[in-house]
Amino acid sequence: MTVPETMNALILKGHGLSGSRSGAAIDTLEPYLDYGKLPVPRPGPGEVLVKVRMASVNPSDLYFIKGEYGQPRVKGAAAGFEGVGQVIAGNGLYAAYLKGKRVAFVGGAAGSGAWAEYIVVSAATCVVIRPAMRDEDAAGHVVNPVTAWTMFDIVEKSGSKSFIFTAANSQLGKLIAGLARDKNCAMIAIIRNESQAAHLEELGAKHVLVQSDPEFGAKLAALCKTDKPRILLDAVANQVAADIFTAMPARARWIIYGKLDTEEPSLREPGQFIFMDKKIEGYWLAQWFKRASIIEKLRTLRAVQNRFISGKWRTEVVATIPLSEALVKLPAALRTGDGKVMLTP
Amino acid sequence: MTVPETMNALILKGHGLSGSRSGAAIDTLEPYLDYGKLPVPRPGPGEVLVKVRMASVNPSDLYFIKGEYGQPRVKGAAAGFEGVGQVIAGNGLYAAYLKGKRVAFVGGAAGSGAWAEYIVVSAATCVVIRPAMRDEDAAGHVVNPVTAWTMFDIVEKSGSKSFIFTAANSQLGKLIAGLARDKNCAMIAIIRNESQAAHLEELGAKHVLVQSDPEFGAKLAALCKTDKPRILLDAVANQVAADIFTAMPARARWIIYGKLDTEEPSLREPGQFIFMDKKIEGYWLAQWFKRASIIEKLRTLRAVQNRFISGKWRTEVVATIPLSEALVKLPAALRTGDGKVMLTP
């Protein structure tokens, strides 16, 4: 396959961190991205060049292009962290093994992004995708599914037979609902509005609480009594989350993995840290990848693929948008909020 | 020794928890305590009767009598958690061994208090005091010194070569300053006003920061860079503490062991839990006693006594007040804030 000199890409307009905190919501991409031409990147030692087949749009991508993610932007580089594609070229033994294979990858922060026709990524981070797996499942194969899997592992290891999950109509929420049901663990799903309630129950959530319900507080208090959830997996980190944490029983852990809301939460009962042994901590997939052993990583990635291939997990795609139309169509597609948006070159 | 039928005591007027949150400050004792007569309590199985020689006044006592501590009050019972006295009678083998000995004790919550001429406590929780130890050191022998010792142990085990300590002019702050210096660990002591700054440095604090200093924020930021403190031991749990935690480097742990301020702290940067692996947790001595092995407890108590006997620790007493005068004199003595107040029958 001949590789051209240039490629189309969605290109970052901003540099570094913006210092602002406007959250994951995005009305227009114009301030952050250009659609244009870039040189096709060249793989360095241990790297491969991947021809992108499909890239996913995660909340972390949106934070990143706005300069509000934990990692600084590189102006003029392609955006996008995650996708699936075919390995075209590369350097090193493992790269040679990967050549021609369909792989899932996570890259992006260092300068080569997934929202482009080609991306350069570290060969070691590529995951070979078995033929039975759809591109739609493979393109969002690492960030959300591995997060769901490893966060549910925290619940299991804690010994708690139930957990609370905020912003549960996210893809992550839907993925973890099935895991919870299969392992006989009661998921208490918190959502903002009712539209996804029945669907979440169908996917495996045992209880679904709607924040706008006037009985929300009373229902939550009752479930804290009967089900004794000791883990709160939270993508919002706002006052509602803080108050849920306060309502939870002794030894509860508030595990923050996202900051969808810009509100600063207040701790109403700091005495609970002392007398009820409560804790607040964070979860970041990048940290998990850093700390987990190779065996643990391989086992997790295999389990995640198997779950998709068996049909137990299925990525719900609401829109597949060509890169060339993303500036116009992506914001509206994201606003539906009920499934994943994919980009294709 | 003949034991009388009745005794003098400071008696709780309130019952259970008050639901209020006014903090440790106390202007007058009248709403909370009566000075009067109670029957001398009788030891049950495994318990001893102790003739109190001296009782200490800790912040936890003040929270407790106001109904703001983690444990409910018993109306009509004597107040006071901690003291030193002589074992007069008891039930069981260990009680027989203790008879006649001078012991330090912690009791109080269940109905028999230390602010009285006699107290009944579990024999197992009594600590035999060696003759070389002063009553002033023995009376406050468990709550503060063991807390200081075990909290400093958290710092040591964390591997951090420095830590931040709020409300550092407390007895706890003074005790931990010496431990820090001896173990070559940099204590960054935070105090509200300058009066105790030189004394804290003399006791072992490497840096003393005064909150009213206009340069407070800049100095703290500089120390966070040079000394990289990863542990915040905090008795205040207010916005200043939350902002100190935000200024601390990655992997910082905010360990709350008291709630001196009634303000609700806001978490300004919840993203730090995710990207910087920060944590909030609590510390409660009662929990430590529950979890530590007997060996660990004995080793700790022996180490604490040795430190007092060797003169490395010395309880700074600002007032010793007879029970009969406590209602009048205790609030004023507490307001000096620069040392311990003791009560004697």
From TrEMBL, chains A, B:
<dbReference type="InterPro" id="IPR013154">
    <property type="entry name" value="ADH-like_N"/>
</dbReference>
<dbReference type="Pfam" id="PF08240">
    <property type="entry name" value="ADH_N"/>
</dbReference>
<dbReference type="Pfam" id="PF00107">
    <property type="entry name" value="ADH_zinc_N"/>
</dbReference>
<protein>
    <submittedName>
        <fullName>Zinc-binding dehydrogenase</fullName>
    </submittedName>
</protein>
<feature type="domain" description="Enoyl reductase (ER)">
    <location>
        <begin position="24"/>
        <end position="343"/>
    </location>
</feature>
<dbReference type="InterPro" id="IPR020843">
    <property type="entry name" value="ER"/>
</dbReference>
<dbReference type="InterPro" id="IPR036291">
    <property type="entry name" value="NAD(P)-bd_dom_sf"/>
</dbReference>
<keyword id="KW-0560">Oxidoreductase</keyword>
<keyword id="KW-0521">NADP</keyword>
<dbReference type="InterPro" id="IPR011032">
    <property type="entry name" value="GroES-like_sf"/>
</dbReference>
<dbReference type="InterPro" id="IPR013149">
    <property type="entry name" value="ADH-like_C"/>
</dbReference>
